[in-house]
Design brief:
3-stranded parallel beta sheet
């Protein structure tokens, strides 16, 4: 949507609602069957996030796992009551690239129906776990459209060892024409001919805050585009349980600078203008 003359660009604040034991990198050491018996910390972490957003006057989009929503329906209702957008992260945190077309259709349909029943609002958006839609499974975007979603934020146009579609457009686009699904990629900034990850996650914790702020400001000023920022509830939780057996690389990526994350999110709410995905890209009220 166009912005009023002189108004700052509204960026999209997004939260991927999952718990620490559901992270894809922990899949080799944490059996899915053990999830119900593990200590869940997502509810307390979401309460902290809701308080931060309320203090900053920020409305956000919460891409929520159906598995979580089923167990914490009151938490989902508090998200909605706070004026935030409820969107889907699938049901069971399965990568889209690890599912057949039929399995994916069942997962995204199930999660959409569940979230709409609990939240009592239409669910228009979807984000694939681990940004697992790319060149090899673009059919997933058709499945999402058929299921009634209007946009996806599932492609990260960078090169990464676990995900990424480097040749994808950097900004919102319609892969199958304007009558299809809108894809809103995670934000990258250009440095010469190189794309830099500028949309949050582990990069935001690893890099100096000033660099992340500079990249997002560059996207706003030079490209004239909103930035898409994402983080997870467990990233604000340095006291979370630490499962044994993870590789050094996985441990570094997961735990680096968790203790600084809350302060950085608070600073983001002061340094930029923020809003929900659906308002920015679909023009909803």
């Amino acid at each position: 949507m166009p912005r009023a003359l002189g108004q700052p660009i509204r960026n999209a604040m997004t939260i991927d609602v999952e718990d620490y034991f559901q992270v894809s990198a922990f899949a080799p050491i944490i059996a899915r069957e053990s999830w119900p018996a593990r200590e869940c910390r997502v509810e307390a972490n979401i309460e902290r996030i809701l308080a931060i957003l309320a203090d900053g006057g920020v409305h956000a989009t919460f891409f929520t796992l159906g598995w979580i929503a089923e167990r914490y329906p009151d938490m989902v209702r508090r998200i909605v009551a706070g004026g935030h957008e409820l969107a889907s992260h699938g049901y069971g945190h399965l990568r889209a690239s690890d599912q057949t077309r039929a399995e994916f259709a069942d997962d995204v349909g199930r999660s959409k129906a569940l979230l709409e029943d609990i939240g009592a609002q239409a669910v228009l958006g979807y984000r694939a776990p681990s940004f697992s839609i790319g060149t090899a499974n673009l059919w997933a975007l058709d499945v999402l459209h058929d299921a009634g979603y209007r946009y996806s934020s599932s492609i990260y146009p960078i090169q990464h060892d676990h995900y990424g579609m480097p040749d994808a457009p950097r900004f919102a686009f319609y892969p199958n024409g304007p009558d299809g699904l809108l894809e809103v990629p995670i934000t990258t900034a250009m440095l010469g001919q190189r794309k830099l990850p500028a949309g949050g996650g582990g990069y935001f914790r690893l890099l100096p805050y000033s660099l992340s702020r500079w990249m997002m400001r560059r996207v706003n000023s030079d490209d004239g585009q909103p930035a898409i920022f994402y983080f997870h509830p467990w990233e604000l939780d340095p006291g979370q349980p630490r499962p044994q057996g993870a590789s050094l690389k996985t441990r570094f990526r997961h735990y680096v600078n968790l203790q600084r994350m809350e302060g950085r999110i608070k600073q983001l709410t002061r340094d930029f203008a923020w809003d929900r995905m659906d308002r920015i890209f679909l023009g909803t009220k």
